[in-house]
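Researcher: Structure for this, please.
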Amino acid sequence: MSRQLTGRSYHFDLGDLKVRFTFDSPTQGSFVVEHGAGLAPDGHAETVALDLHQIREGVYLNSWTEASGATVTHLEDFENGTLYSNVTVDGQLHHFTGTIKEA
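Model: Predicted structure, token format:
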């Protein structure tokens, strides 16, 4: 990873869905749901195994599977502060576009 993400926390603001995400290591992250938008309970916290790939400087493809079976795939553009997210919950696919800000 060119950009130092490990040890940093970010606010992922996807409109109604808001999450604080910490990159614990290149292969592990943890998050707290600040506002779940009906997809996850507010305050839900979890540590997940990451599949993180740098696309170019400051842009990453990041995905994980949660304990509930929900899957998350992000295109994280730290240079422009933009986040594109696809989340599956109970077989339903949800698309979000939002912002990334360092916590």
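Researcher: Any notable elements?
Model: Residues 6 and 25 are 5 Å apart (CA to CA). The beta strands are 9-14, 17-25, 28-35, 45-49, 51-56, 59-65, 71-77, 82-89, 92-102.
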